[in-house]
Design brief:
heterodimer, A: 297 residues, twelve-stranded mixed beta sheet, 1 helix, 52% strand, B: 228 residues, mainly alpha, 10 helices, 75% helix
């Protein structure tokens, strides 16, 4: 069977066109698979940024001097949808699952945020690290299984996790932490009001108690450890139902010096006393874990 | 009559039966006859779909218990769906009921906690001990209603979660594991309170555990909904 030259020429032309189209589309396909998005939002004063990431992945927030919020996101697949909108000084970022049958590995979305130093944050994530650095402003950070690391942040900080751990380094303002099995490490803080509660995680507070500050740390089954400075001044109330108390500051602990007769609860083990002049108030509690208190220096 | 007229006739009058003029066109037009055949197949398949999907009976039991707990109803018969009500309305009620129940349980725990914190046993109470001892003692377990509601929530939520997820994610595992551990912790606190009903520390931890349980159940429900 012979093919006429005209037909052959048409066939070759069509084939070449298809190959060219394929080569042109190749970069597009790879872009879709490893998509990167970046949006810039001009703001005035103190913006409010809300991120809701129903996918998994890391969320990183850093600050700069510019009055602009920059959102960068990367995702390995197109199974995640990313919506962003700005209404005046409020910026919403929402990552949602587009395909519920997608594999777990395809359901991740890493978000990087650059914000003005004074910014309010509301971040809700499923898993993956939430990292916030050098941001001044109130923030609510929630995660189910992801850890939350804060460095040099200040404001009214609310952190809620189910299993994620909080590490708060050089934080200021007020801190409220609530978790089921996540631990909390508060390092070198300048916090005036601290409420830490975890059912099964551990708590470590390593830093100064600021005068007039109020500090409450409770763990159901975990270890509550407090390391304070010799210059600190606070009233202390530590009690546990069926756990143990490891008091390594017996020598520095005085009876309550304020004339209010207080004692540990009738059905709990523990101790009450004052360090220094008792300017701050510290309450430590554990249901069946250990309470340890020691001086750092 | 042309093809576009056929589409208009179908839209306005349906195709069973087709008007005489339209039928003449369809007989001689392969595109329109194919269109009519497609519609007939869709109708045939649609007629095989059940008009209503009956939710499992546990849904109604749970819903009724929740509504009663919230004092929204007093007559259990009110929540039984009527014959004609579509299944999705019932499902909507279930979801609303759960959210209300979760909120109500949280509020109940907070209120009970507040009462417990502010309540101080008075001297007259102590002097009446002899009278109280004469009466058969029935020490009410703290947050018992909240605990029962949450247990019902958990029971009704579990199978839905399993059915809705295409694969088990680390987040769902974390929620389930934490829920299981919380349940064990709740048992420990309750046991302690049975031994010492006045143990305020145990009471506080029990209250907090119930609140966390309510939040975990709400998170599980949210995840089920977002995936679907």
């Amino acid at each position: 069977m012979t093919v006429s030259p005209a037909i052959r020429q048409n066939f070759v032309s069509a084939l070449l066109a298809m190959i060219s189209a394929g080569m042109l589309l190749m970069p597009l396909a790879s872009f879709a698979a490893g998509q990167k998005v970046e949006r810039h939002f001009a703001v005035k004063g103190r913006p409010v940024v809300m991120i809701q990431n129903v996918a998994n992945g890391r969320i990183e927030v850093k600050s700069w001097k510019n009055p602009e919020v920059v959102v960068s996101a990367s995702q390995p697949s197109n199974k995640i949808g990313l919506d962003m909108e700005q209404v005046d000084n409020r910026i919403d970022v929402m990552a949602s699952v587009l395909d519920s049958s997608a594999q777990e590995s395809d359901l991740s979305e890493n978000i990087q945020l650059t914000v003005p130093e004074e910014t309010e944050l509301q971040i809700k994530s499923q898993s993956g690290l939430i990292y916030v650095e050098q941001v001044l402003g109130d923030m609510t950070l929630e995660s189910i299984a992801g850890d939350i690391h804060l460095k040099e942040v200040s404001g009214y900080i609310i952190v809620r996790t189910t299993g994620g751990t909080l590490v708060c380094t050089l934080c200021g303002g007020k801190l409220k932490f609530d978790s089921v099995s996540g631990s909390a490490q508060i390092l070198q803080p300048s916090l005036t009001n601290v409420t830490l509660y975890t059912s099964f995680g551990n708590i470590l507070f390593d830093g100064d108690f600021i005068r007039t500050g109020i500090y409450s740390m409770k763990s159901g089954r975990g270890l509550v450890e407090v390391r304070f400075a010799s210059t600190d001044s606070f009233d202390l109330n530590a009690q546990t139902t069926s756990g143990t108390v490891d008091n390594r500051v017996e020598a520095f602990l005085k009876p309550d010096s304020h004339g209010i007769r207080r004692s540990a609860a009738k059905y709990a083990k523990g101790f009450v006393g004052t360090i220094g002049n008792g300017l701050a108030k510290v309450e430590l509690s554990s249901f069946s874990g250990t309470i340890r208190i020691l001086r750092r220096d | 009559m042309q093809c576009k007229d056929i589409a208009q006739v179908i839209e306005q009058e349906g195709f069973s039966p087709l008007p005489e003029a339209a039928r003449g066109h369809v007989l001689g037009c392969s595109a329109c006859s194919s269109l009519i055949a497609d519609f007939e197949r869709i109708l045939a398949v649609a007629s095989e779909i059940p008009a209503e999907v009956e939710p499992p009976s546990r849904v109604w039991v749970s819903l009724r218990a929740q509504l009663e707990a919230e004092k929204i109803i007093t007559d259990p018969a009110m929540v039984i769906p009527t014959e004609g009500s579509p299944w999705w309305q019932g499902f909507g009620q279930v979801i609303r009921g759960r959210m209300l129940a979760t909120a109500a349980v949280a509020a109940l725990i907070v209120a009970a906690g507040y009462v417990q914190m502010t309540h101080k046993p008075s001297a007259s109470t102590a002097s009446n001990t002899a009278v109280a001892d004469a009466v058969p003692r029935a020490v009410a377990e703290p947050f018992a209603d909240a605990g029962t509601s949450l247990d019902q929530e958990e029971q009704s939520l579990g199978p839905i979660q399993t059915a809705s997820m295409s694969s088990v994610s680390p987040v769902d595992n974390s929620l389930r594991e934490n829920l299981a551990t919380l349940n064990t912790f709740i048992k420990e606190c309750r046991k302690r309170l049975q031994e010492d009903p006045n143990d305020q520390v145990a009471r506080d931890y029990l209250s907090a555990a119930y609140q966390q349980k309510a939040e975990i159940l709400a998170a599980m429900m949210d995840r089920g909904r977002s995936v679907n």
